[in-house]
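[recover] target loaded
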């Protein structure tokens, strides 16, 4: 004899019966709703069905009265039937509280509710649901279990009650709508009756008014005839008056013309007399002032020269010093009495005397000095550099030279600072060029670089680095605003940042975002930099680039040619800027030219750009970088693809292995992983790809946005109709099999990784998306398998 436990089956059958009963109830109530039965019938049907579904006879409906100030118990079953007609206020007992807050209320013990009715200690499980229209509460649907029945309401029973409450709400809304419609029809009938009566009265009034208007029109016609006759008489009189007015107007115009002529003559004569008077007065005043000025000019000029803050010297046509002011005494150390009357050469050093004498001879021939640098020898023998302006003084005939007056300014310290700045600029230029990377030759590509700052130092720089065993060339091009030593400091900071971000092994877009955040820490207000980053990946045969203020890349490739526009925000403007990655497949013979605007602006003006002829194009860019019309730094990195290595993964044969040397490989080789999986599954994307990417993310420890330099090996193998994937990592091992055993024993924990800090989402996803999954004993390699 075989004994089986059929408890589960019976529970299932009971649940099925309850579900069928629930569906029958919904159908019955829906049919009554569609037939728009009266509200009492519908509510009674809902109470009976709810009692049958939830196995309790105690249920009721409260509805808000027309004044909306009370809840009235309108329908009930069981214990509550004796309370029909009872009214309560908002907040009074639990049903009033539901009316007040519009929220479902469920309890296992009615006595535990605040505001409960005190004499209902025999009520245990109780539930109240608001009947709502939008946010408005229309009533409360309640259900309870009493006496020995202490069962709490389950979630399914609560859901059933909510459905029935929704239908009850619809019933109440329909009844309200019907009542409103009936009242509206009654109002319209009454309005139509009133309108008919008003129309009858209006017709009577219009008829009477029409008769009155006819009589008035006849009287008005007679009056109009009389007025017309009077208008004809008045018209004749107006014509006579108008003729008289025209004659008077002509006379007035003649008189006005004569008056204007007379006034003009009087005004003109008066103005002439006033002008003559003012001219004589001004001439007399000018003559008086000139006489006073002539008396003071000699003394004024002497004091002006003597006490001027600028050094002033005067010599005659024979180059003899005739005047030497106080400021010149301080400049040379000589007193005026020591040099006045002596030759001009006494204040010049012997080493430059011949050149200085030539300049002085030019002044005698009429050449003016303007900002001429001439060395001066002090009395102590020290030589100072001065900036001179000189002018000739002529006699009254404007031909005979009487003296030369010169003014000097000591610029010795300024010249010294300029020389120091020049030395600093030359040093900065040598440092800038030393920071530029040396181009490493490659059998696959040819690289040519151009760097020609506009001054001694510039705001441009470039950076190149071969990665992954010479299979990927990463580069950056930067154009900082401005020129000079300040910009040199910014470019030096950018050099350091470029080397630092290169060591972080970030994807190109993340590297540009990192540079943008850090650059703002080094830039002063109003300073920013245009940048462009690129990666020439020979293994994946792809060019990737990101623009940040350098808006175009020149190229000739199979996919596109010419200037490719790629806008992007400059570095140092917005701290959290994002940048777009551009991709292009590469082939042998492709040429790419990355340049700053000092070259691209000129290149755009050229009629013919030999983009496909690499040597000629590089030569053209070098010529443009040395053009005299250039007004900016000129920098370029030019690349021609001469050959390509074997693809990372072959088209045929198994197994296929991809090795990852760090976080950068994980980012750049994702497309190759997707290609292999798509080849096997025949789908561009699939859950196989999701599981493999999770395995790789665990192996590379990709979390928190922080790159960690773990190494990994990914091995694909296809055996018959099975795909086997193995991922091995260099990171520290962990007990992966123990986690798998736990999840297989307790499937409900499959997606509890949000609560378990020791487990991320990777293992649950791999386990749920693969047909087979296991770790090796060390926990350093995971195996995933699928039956295709």
């Amino acid at each position: 004899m075989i004994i089986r436990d059929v408890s589960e089956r019976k529970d299932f059958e009971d649940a099925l019966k309850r579900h069928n009963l629930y569906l029958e109830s919904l159908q019955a109530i829906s049919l009554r709703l569609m037939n728009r039965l009266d509200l009492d019938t519908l509510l009674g049907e809902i109470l009976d069905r709810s009692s049958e579904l939830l196995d309790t006879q105690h249920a009721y409906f409260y509805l808000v009265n027309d004044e909306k100030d009370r809840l009235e118990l309108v329908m009930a079953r069981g214990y509550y039937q004796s309370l029909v007609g009872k009214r309560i206020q908002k907040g009074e007992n639990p049903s009033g509280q539901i009316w007040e807050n519009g929220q479902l209320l469920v309890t296992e013990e009615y006595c535990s509710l605040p505001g409960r009715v005190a004499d209902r200690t025999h009520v245990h499980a109780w539930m109240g649901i608001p009947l709502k229209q939008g946010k408005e509460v229309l009533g409360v649907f309640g259900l309870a279990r009493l006496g020995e029945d202490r069962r709490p309401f389950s979630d399914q029973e609560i859901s059933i009650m909510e459905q029935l409450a929704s239908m009850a709400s619809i019933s109440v809304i329909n009844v309200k709508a019907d009542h409103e419609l009936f009242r509206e029809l009654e109002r319209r009938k009454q309005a139509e009756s009133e309108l008919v009566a008003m129309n009858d009265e209006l017709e009577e009034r219009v008829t009477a008014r029409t008769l009155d208007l006819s009589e008035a029109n006849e009287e008005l016609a007679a009056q109009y005839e009389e007025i017309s006759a009077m208008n004809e008489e008045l018209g004749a009189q107006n014509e006579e008056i108008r003729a008289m007015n025209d004659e008077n107007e002509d006379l007035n115009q003649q008189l006005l013309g004569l008056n204007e002529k007379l006034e003009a003559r009087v005004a003109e004569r008066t103005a002439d007399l006033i002008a003559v008077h003012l001219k004589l007065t001004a001439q007399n005043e000018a003559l008086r002032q000139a006489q006073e000025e002539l008396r003071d000019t000699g003394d004024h000029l002497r004091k002006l020269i003597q006490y001027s803050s600028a050094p002033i010297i005067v010599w005659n046509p024979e180059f003899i010093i005739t005047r030497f002011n106080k400021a010149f005494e301080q400049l040379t150390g000589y007193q005026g009495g020591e040099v006045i009357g002596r030759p001009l050469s006494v204040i010049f050093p012997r080493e430059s005397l011949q050149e200085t004498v030539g300049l002085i001879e030019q002044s005698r021939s009429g050449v003016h000095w303007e900002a001429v640098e001439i060395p001066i020898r002090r009395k102590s023998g020290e030589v100072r550099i001065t900036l001179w302006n000189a002018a000739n003084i002529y006699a009254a005939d404007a031909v005979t030279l009487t003296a030369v007056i010169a003014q000097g300014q000591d610029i010795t310290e300024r010249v010294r600072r300029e020389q120091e700045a020049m030395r600093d600029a030359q040093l900065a230029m040598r440092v800038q060029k030393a920071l530029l990377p040396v181009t490493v030759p490659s059998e696959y590509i040819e690289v040519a670089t151009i760097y020609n700052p506009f001054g001694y130092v510039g705001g441009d720089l470039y950076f190149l680095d071969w990665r992954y065993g010479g299979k990927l060339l990463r580069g950056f091009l930067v154009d900082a605003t401005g020129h000079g030593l300040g910009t040199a400091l910014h470019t030096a900071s950018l050099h350091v940042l470029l080397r630092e971000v290169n060591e972080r092994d970030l994807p190109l877009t993340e590297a540009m975002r990192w540079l943008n955040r850090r650059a703002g820490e080094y830039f002063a207000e109003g300073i920013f930099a245009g940048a462009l980053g690129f990666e020439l990946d020979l293994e994946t045969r792809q060019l990737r680039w990101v623009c940040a203020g350098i808006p175009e890349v020149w190229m000739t490739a199979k996919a596109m040619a010419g200037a490719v526009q790629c806008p992007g925000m400059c570095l140092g403007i917005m701290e959290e800027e994002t940048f777009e990655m551009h991709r292009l497949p590469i082939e042998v013979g492709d040429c790419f030219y990355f340049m700053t605007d000092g070259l691209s602006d000129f290149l755009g003006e050229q009629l013919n750009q030999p983009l496909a002829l690499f040597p000629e194009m590089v030569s053209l860019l070098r010529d443009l970088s040395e053009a005299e019309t250039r007004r900016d730094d000129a920098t370029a990195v030019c690349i021609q693809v001469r050959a390509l290595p074997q693809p990372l993964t072959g088209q045929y044969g198994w197994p296929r292995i991809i090795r990852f040397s760090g976080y950068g490989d994980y980012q750049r080789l994702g497309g190759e992983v997707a290609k292999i999986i798509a080849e096997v599954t025949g789908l561009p994307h699939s859950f196989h790809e999701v599981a493999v990417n999770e395995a790789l993310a665990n192996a590379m420890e990709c979390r928190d946005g922080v790159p960690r330099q773990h190494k990994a090996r990914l091995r694909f193998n296809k055996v018959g109709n099975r795909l086997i994937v193995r991922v091995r990592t260099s990171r520290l091992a962990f007990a992966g099999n123990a986690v798998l055993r736990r999840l297989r024993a307790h499937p409900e924990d499959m997606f509890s990784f949000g609560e378990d800090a020791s487990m991320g989402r990777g293992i649950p996803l791999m386990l749920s998306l693969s047909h087979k999954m296991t770790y090796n004993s060390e926990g350093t390699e995971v195996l995933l398998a699928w039956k295709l």
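[recover] notes: The first strand starts at residue 58 and ends at 64.
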